[in-house]
Design a protein that fits this description.
The complex is a heterodimer of chains A (302) and B (440). Chain A is an alpha/beta fold and 302 residues long. Chain A has nine helices and 14 strands. Chain A has helices at 42-49, 90-100, 105-118, 134-146, 164-179, 191-197, 215-221, 267-277, 290-300; strands at 2-13, 16-27, 31-35, 57-62, 65-66, 75-78, 152-156, 183-187, 200-205, 208-214, 226-231, 244-246, 257-261, 280-286. By secondary structure, chain B is α/β, with parallel strands linked by helices. Chain B has two domains: 2-38 and 179-437, no CATH class; 53-152, Periplasmic binding protein-like II (D-Maltodextrin-Binding Protein, domain 2), CATH 3.40.190.10. Helix content of chain B is 65%, strand content 7%. Chain B has 17 helices and six strands. Chain B has helices at 2-16, 19-49, 88-95, 109-112, 125-146, 152-158, 181-216, 218-223, 228-265, 275-285, 290-301, 305-331, 341-361, 368-373, 380-387, 394-422, 432-437; strands at residues 54-60, 75-81, 101-105, 116-119, 167-170, 176-179. In chain B, strands 2-1-3-4 form a four-stranded mixed beta sheet, covered by helices on one side. Chain B starts with a helix and ends with a helix. The chains are: A alpha/beta (302), B alpha/beta (440).
Amino acid sequence: MNFIDVNQVVKQYDGHLALDNVDLHVPQGCIYGLLGPNGAGKTSLIRIINRITRQDSGTVLLNGREMVQADIANIGYLPEERGLYKKLKVSDEIVYLARLKGMPRRLAETEMEKWLERFDLTEWRNRKVEELSKGMQQKVQFITTVIHRPQLLIFDEPFSGFDPVNAEQLKQEIMELRNQGATILFSTHNMASVEEICEKITLINHSRVVLEGRVDDIKQSHKKNLFIVNVAGDKAVEAHEGIFDIVSGENSVATGTLIKLCQGAQLRDAIAWLNENYTLTGITEQLPSMNEIFIETVRTNA
Amino acid sequence: MNKLKLIIQHEYMTIVGKKSFIVMTLLIPFLIILIGCVPVLLAYVNDSADTSVTRIAVIDETGKYGGAMKNNDNYRFVPLLGQKVDNPHDFYIAAGESIDAVMVIPADVDESQLVSVFSEKTLDHSTVNYLAHCLDDTLRNAKIAAMGDPELLSKMEQAQVETQVKSIKWDEHGDEQEQSAEFASIIGMVLAFVTYMFVLSYGAMIMNSVVEEKTNRIVEVIVSSCKPMELMMGKIIGVGLVGLTQFAIWVVLLSIGSVLLGLVGGSSMAADTSAMTAGMNLPGDSGMNAGMAVEISKALAGINWLSLLGNFVLYFIGGYLLYASLFAGFGSAVDQASDSSQFTTPIILIMVVALYAGIACIENPSGPMAVWCSIIPFTSPIVMMVRLPFDVPWWQLLLSIGLLYATAVLCIWISARIYRTGILLYGKKRSFKEVIKWVK
């Protein structure tokens, strides 16, 4: 069951096509990556799902039915450009934004206490937002995004501005929210975090979807028949005509040698040959990183 | 609807809770009183503090008018009766430091009515006036005496006339009510000025708030929780309520102040005059004698306060909505407050024109310019204030209010369309033309 279904959405701004028949299908309870270079149309798409702007054509379904204005109470949105009222007290800020999402005041207050405690911000509750460090402001912003327990969370570059410790905490919180049943749409340039937490992705380039699917499947389909070979002894692995080539790079006997199977060659041929000439201690398939896939896809679609 | 209420509440509390708001609200009535007192104080200072004495040698060629120049605290005259001086400059040099100026009353002054005064530094206006004043009476009396009728002077004094016009208005029962046209003008001008100041300062406040939300980037979070229209209207209404609160506090403060002053001064200000008027009389109140106070309270009673205040509130709200929505709409088109002048200048210009039209209309509050400007929606909230104390035909009022509110609604609609696009666009500076395109 998909939680979000974006079908054939088109959005045009002043002669510029921002989204060109974009489809996006996010399953319930999935952490979904929305990728793409700057200006590809990610923010436009997110704003349409948020109902901040309207699409020119196409449909957006939430939980299988057409979205209505009331659905925004069920969405938590963390924009890339973070923003809070700087002059407000932390507690007033959180309660105000929670109530705008339709939460009753009492509930907002009790929920806020839990979250403040969780992020070690309890003693800051009566301070103005502008007195907080940037990291703490980010945490406050995160709390305002999730406090009303939305079923859909949209994070635009959630990790930017967090130090590694806090980023890890944030990651755990996101996983936890997913485990509680929330669906998470996640827009980022940080491919390492995509590999770590996203199950599926859609890559948008020049206003169109250019790649879509499960992260594992995408990696498989983009593999280049690369393997890391480890051998005993200090004899360097050399290429074998017709079976594999050595990929230049930092190869050493200790860390292993990166080889690429030749067109039509089988892995077992390579293993057989290696076994004959070396003492083979290990062979691992090297899948492309999302970073490489991203760059390659964007370049070929340029 | 709930969200709108929440936003109004938030906007209201954000401003009212600020220290600066509380300080300004309490301080401004005192500032107004102070500013009212400044001209009086200055005049006082001018009179008493100027102890320097100007010494003037009087070369009286007639030999009879030198005595007309009376010494006082500021002027000391040195008469040189009948003495012939050919060159005043030589005389001045010879006298050295002992005199500042030389005045020559020529022998033919009776005919020419012209005297000269020489000095090295430019003499100020008040000195010249004083000299003329001293001579005027003397020359006039001399002339009258020359006519040979010893009683002429007293006859002329008896014939002195100064006409006073008492304006009396009939109310709907034909009862007579005294009315003061001057007082009505003052009230009209005060209302016009209050409207102008309020709309301008609170409009600017809205604009800053819009720009601030945009630069803070909070606006994207907010509009993912409510409609842009709700945010804009919440802001306009919330800030408007702040204005009304401030206004109410001032009226209360000023009336308390005037009651206190009235008690202290024992003035017979009529107790039934409304709080507003009591407040407005405050600055001059202490120095006012009882008779004048009675006269003013009579004049106050001659004005229909209920309809005046009712209309004032109607125009105030209409004018505020109209201008505030424009400020909000155009505020959304800029990234920084400093870029906003290209949009605010035209708005402020219109308001300034309205204020000047209002001032011009005091002379003739029923003239064609006053009528037209009080019907055109952009100027009516200010110009109509000037006309209100003088009875305005009901059809003009209806037409003007109808037009004002229709235009306000149109401005809100246009601004809302600019706003919902503008708040999400960053980066390059927008031209007026581009912004207008967003309306479509």
